[in-house]
Amino acid sequence: MHRITGRAGGDSLIEMSPTDSVNDDINGYHQHGSSGSGSQQEQSGSPVMPDVSVETCESLNTSLVSLAPSDHSDSPPFETQTLERIDDLTGIDKQQQSKDSVFFRDGQRRIDFVLSYVDDKDGERKLERRKVYESNLEKVGLELETEDKMESEDGKTYFVKIHAPWEVLATYADVLKIKVPFKANDIPDNSEMPMNWLATPFRLPEHIMHPEPDYFTAPFNKSKSDFFLIDDKETFFPPSTRNRIVYYILSRCSYTREDCADRDKKGIKRLLNNGTYSSAFPLHDCRYWKKSRDANCESERYNLYRYWAGFGSFFKEQPLNLVRKYYGEKIGIYFAWLGFYTEMLFFAAVVGTICFVYGFLTFDDNEWSKEICSEEIGGEIVMCPLCDKKCGYWKLNSTCNSSWQSHLFDNVATVFFAIFMGIWVTLFLEFWKRRQARLEYEWDLVDFEEEQQQLQLRPEYETKCTNRKLNRITQEMELVLQRTPTDIVGKMFVCWATVILWISLIIACIIGVIAYRLAVYAAFASIMKDNPTTQLQVVGPLITPQLATSVTASCINFVIIMVLNLMYERVAVWITDMEIPKTHLEYENKLTVKMFLFQFVNYYSSCFYVAFFKGKFVGYPGDYAYMFGKWSKLRNEECDPGGCLIELTTQLVIVMTGKQVWGNIQEALVPWLMNWWGSRKARSHPESLYSRWEQDHDLQGFGQLGLFYEYLEMVIQFGFITLFVASFPLAPLLALINNIIEVRVDAWKLTTQFRRPVAAKAHSIGAWQEILNGMAVLSVVTNAFIVAFTSDMIPRLVYMYAYQPDGEMNMKGYINNSLSVFNISEIPLANRPEDGENPLWFNSSITACRYRDYRYPPGHEKQYSHTMQFWHIIAAKLAFIIIMEHVVFVVKFFVAWLIPDIPSDVKARVKRERYLVQEYLHDYEVEKLKIQLSQNSQDGCTCTPMIYPSLPRHEVLSECL
pTM of this prediction? Predict the structure, then answer.
């Protein structure tokens, strides 16, 4: 019988006795059979439970036996020598095993984790670490089997295969409070939707959608293992749970024989960083394109590839239960959120497309564009130069095309769509809370956060802890990190100063791009003054100095965004590591805040500039405003008569589309190329020699922050379609198309191009939920300001209702009303065009030019000061912002109040499960006590004591006992 020992407190690892470890090594190939069937006592219903005791860290280190020869010559490592001797004893030929198997060479014990390493120049020190580390793993109870480098396809890589027997799994399932089934779910499922047959084409087979029956679950208790529905100990814990338990052990196991003074020397992560091991990963269960040849293997990877990762399944529902079972809850919750987000985008895309079509159909009713394009009005209006020296006078009808394009997005439907998106965001977030609550129950994640905080401490935090403190809630001593106020303030200052520094760097880059726009516009205007682009077919007339400047500046801005992203990712991880967060959840939340602040400024600053600053602080001829003062000669940009909205649309399309296209290429193509290059040698070997662990070793590692970047990509996209959607109603449609591809690309790369990630639990999308809520509130404000200040909607309405000269409800005369007059002779010499810059049609008979503003004309007693119409428009804009915000916020809060966060049936199921856990545990304890009393009775009396009244025996108890 195994004896379980351990270390106290946060350093505790449950260990097997040295004697048991040696016996397990010698008889390891046959142990699986006994552990699978169980002893006679286990089969009879009275399992033999191991004795549990606690030993100190010094006890562990002094009890380690020297398992390797003293000399470290070129002979094979000790692990290989041991296994060769075992092979001689057992008569097993390694060449006869199935290379596609995920089991030890005995074909029975499952491989739960794999470590790989390569001998190098620093081999002696690393060999010593590996010996101690693997010896400690064996003392914990894990079973190891090493594949010699001569058995690998490259001839130089050793593979250490790890198996967790039932005793280890049960012990740590108890420690981690893993929930397991104890009773079949007896609540009828009444969730059948009306006209459910319409969804048949989108359905997947039932065994794929629901690979496991529905059970009531409770945290596993090793001392009450017969309380749970255990049919087969080898399959009771799924592979995802097994590799999670093994990784928990690997992360906390020491690799030093010295006493506990050097607490840093523990954990597989440090061994990977210092090169002792080259990789550590759980195995995929089969090749993705064909099922495993081993009948004992589930081949879930094949099912995921066939029904989920294939692009032909883009219209099918996602097998989220299978994803959760194979990859764990953390990855499952991401794909559940991504799928739900994509479903909700469909409704926003439909409404946005309708608004765009409305703008297209009302093309001919666009009165102000007709006036701009007509020779009688637009062709007679001479506009003032848009820059100093290099820009000449120009006619209004030269902006005809941009005016028509602007109408596609700047129309009455824009206001409706902005209000709709404010409500859509609320519906999306509220319905996601309900979906998330249902998943929390179905995936046994209710009350998980407390467990996460208490049990899932980061090994990096544990190694830094020197003191213990009483937890007032649990009344248990827990590890705490001793920090002085000076240390806390110093680290916070360094961390946030670094963040502010990098955000300032982004702003500086954006200012540089703005300066580029101002400088290059003059050059484009000078080059295009004779309209050389009009000779180009189709696109020639569309190319203007404004468009050329906007497109090139947007492309440069996109390149800067991508470069800064690569640089800041490393900085954000570094400063987060320096803070030493307590749990993995806290680590990701801290990193999320820093990365999002950076990305928010990086991606959206250029759009904010175009939306809210360009054309707002221009001045007027004779008194222009300059970016860095008049000495810089960089005059602030103006909006053309068509408005700045079309330029915001251009900026949004380039940055958003470019990011999505680049992201998909980077996510899919780069891992594929790296895997192709890494496995090129393996293609020359027969498939029978390319083992399961070698195939996975040649794949890319998913990484601890793999999902972080996936969330970040989607949240940045969410910002584009909410913060600036009033300028581009087709943004949700582009996002929908991208996300349909994104779901399958992420599934494809996870299934085919990456090693199997270590399963992890997560009950929600974490800090991203609060970020989405904040962006939802901000989007109402930004869209209200875009409609009011960026588009020309409010000035047109004010003109139509208050300033139309004929008193009619139309837009005739709007263009002439919206342009002010300036006397050319009063333009300062520094602002006048140089000789040769003016077009051929310009002559001395033209005495006035027009500019975009509401100012009194020359000769008026208040010449060049703002008119009353200007102040009426400002008042109307502010009134619109207040009204729109209040209407949308009232609707948002009402919808949020109306929709409960947790469905009523989920509440009922959670309450029933908690009730059943208490009831069945009570009955279980009573039954065990009655059996114990009857066995210990000296006089043979089998009467039930009166303090333990007879209770009805439930079906599950009769099966277990």
Answer: 0.81
